[in-house]
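WARN no homologs supplied; continuing
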Amino acid sequence: MDHAQGPVKGKNMNQLNVIEKGALGIHEGKIAYIGTEEEALQLEQEGKLLISERLDCQNKLVTPGLVDPHTHLVFGGSREHEMALKQQGVPYLEILARGGGIHSTVNMTREASTEELMTKALFHLDRMLSYGSTTIEAKSGYGLDRETERKQLHVLQQVQAKHSVDIVSTFLGAHAIPPAYKENPDAFLDEMMDLLKEVKEQNLATFVDIFCEEGVFSVEQSRNYLLQAKEMGFQLKIHADEIHSLGGAELAAEIGCISADHLVGASDQGIEDLAKQGVIAVLLPGTSFYLSKGVHARAQLMLEKGVAIALSTDFNPGSSPTENLQFIMNLAALNLKLSPEAIWNAVTINAAHAIGKGEEAGQLKVGRGADIVIWDAPNYHYIPYHYGVNHVHTVIKAGKIAYTGRNGYVS
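OK structure emitted
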């Protein structure tokens, strides 16, 4: 199947293109040949294929570089001290009242210098690369004020200049309601909308996102905010129905979001609307796992209705502190009951389309950039099956070896 025209939808996600005993050629950073080893050797003998260097992948799996379409890469500090409180059953709102939760991260991000945030983000991005991610999306959202939101986006620009992994930036200023605006959240949204003008002028973000949930921003607030962003030329994402069936999925379909993310509480109608309008469902099983709610997004119903599903780490300090997209693949098999084929489509082509990179990333295709992972695995079923380890043998980014499991990162 050729998926170049869009993401893989519904039950088609259970199909995967596989070449046994394959060969792949790279020239000047791009994929120049895909076929079988036998065909490649025949072309070489005929003088039609010049091979200057070989990389032996016998008994290994070769795939596109993974795409992580929902991360919160830039933030200050960490929140490991909250683990004990969660284990004791302390409600999140009480943790928040004690100075923890998202506002704790906001304070640490505000206090951190640009250099400190950049060093920390590069550390986490290196780790993502080591697990096979070659393209990611990254959000702001731990500033909740003009200065810090701007600082996060500038850090993302600087990190991109220093790192081989491709980063798509999203402005998530509307991530929570700051305490000072608790009684007037509309005024806070107005402030973030005013900042968006500067974000657009400086090309600091491609997408705009908002947290549409009970106790955060309503469907109506989210609609008004995102439609204004759309008029300014931004593409749209939405944190939708993470906990409650609020109508975020329906809104995503109504206003043309490229993706709706989380969706644990999405309604039947919301799922049908996503399918009808072609909105990609970015599911985050690591968050459900870490929060121990015992409730997961209804991935099987989404497939039945024809939704395109992507998977992501939701890497963040509070509800999913992992850079490991391989572990998310394990959780997708165990908790979302997705097939190995659907999982691979969800972390490659569909994830790429969910961040506007469908024509560049997520597929092995002649002419595209050579973003490739070689795995210490005998077949594609093995990665979702064998959990808790890193299966990466080699990561190739834009035709150059960027990481090897034996030697680490390659500058």
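DSSP finds 16 helices and 15 strands in the chain.
OK
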